[in-house]
Amino acid sequence: MIELKSGTCRNLKDPIWALGLMSGTSADGIDAALIQTDGVTVTAFGPTHYASYPAGVKEQILKAYGRPPETDSYELSSRITELHADAIKDLLDKTDIKPTLIGFHGQTIYHRPPYETHQIGDGDLLASLTGIDVIDQFRINDVAHGGQGAPLVPLFHQALCINLPKPLAVLNVGGVANVTWMGTDEDDLLAFDVGPGNALIDDWVRHHRGLACDQNGAIAAIGKIHNNRINRWLCHPYFAKKPPKSLDRNMFHSCLQDIAGLPFEDGVATLTAFTAAAVEKSLRHLPERPKQWIIAGGGAHNQTLMKMIGVRLGAPILSASELKWDNDALEAQAFGFLAVRSIRGLPLTVPGTTGAPHPLTGGRQSFSITR
Fold this sequence. Notes:
Layout: E1 16-23, E2 29-37, E3 42-52, H1 55-64, H2 71-92, E4 101-112, E5 116-120, H3 123-130, E6 133-136, H4 140-144, H5 154-160, E7 168-173, E8 176-182, E9 189-196, H6 199-209, H7 227-233, H8 237-240, H9 254-258, H10 264-281, E10 292-296, H11 303-313, E11 317-319, H12 330-343, H13 351-354, E12 364-366
Parallel strand pairs: 1-4, 4-6, 7-10, 10-11
Antiparallel strand pairs: 1-2, 2-3, 4-5, 6-12, 7-8, 8-9
Helix pairs in contact: 1-2, 2-3, 6-10, 7-10, 10-11
């Protein structure tokens, strides 16, 4: 179990400015965002910043996926930390806001719950480089107690949706897609990874055309969907498994071999439709059908995927940006929010989000040298 160090401001009630960081399994780069919160409600959002990973670093991350950290991962961990420090500097250079705390998610390279989860990145180094206290390793305490360690954003989603009509679902489509379902009572909260998000699509277009992604879903829109493949993939036992459940980025990587002989555009269309079909499959696990879906993450920019999801769900869908949320910075904001919860001893996970045995705190604090 990870214990909070002494000397934190966990008993203070006033909102503070925190800086959240996120680098998802798409490995595109770093999102940084300022958020003012008391760890329960959000009182203000500040500026955001995005920094792409250098091509060489992205390739190193992609090669590191699917295995626990090895000797070569430690040099990569330091490099990733330095790049996060650069992103923080660039963000703070354009604002007068001085954050009290940094929420540093790190870069997930291996996730095999309920046994292991590994996010590389050095909280002590980041605190030293920035002069700001850092909370990192958000997932480990949950996994140590038998939880899935993911998804971690549901309590933030709940805070954002407090005044919206329920039941409601927030679908985050990053490398992996996850859903947060909220009922009418505060304790009506369920979350889990529904299936692949953008990862398979990104890997396919990068391998065949050297592209980072299918911009706006333009390639998928002209390809043919091969439903026989999708139906076969949907027989994977993960989809029938009841929550709590979470995915490693590469769990469905064999799908790429299964479509190896398809035309390039058909592959993109089929993988995109698979993501939408996985979302539809999640309906069987929800206590009640949502009245509305809010779509966040990189997938919300893919209009072809958005249309496919809308057809599959048969329910109104909104992109996060339509609610004036910062779609691209949402997860970074979430880790600023969770960092404040961590230092105040508030739970980061609950049974309905990760299968934790009871509400669990988490995170590890690194003190800056300026303290």
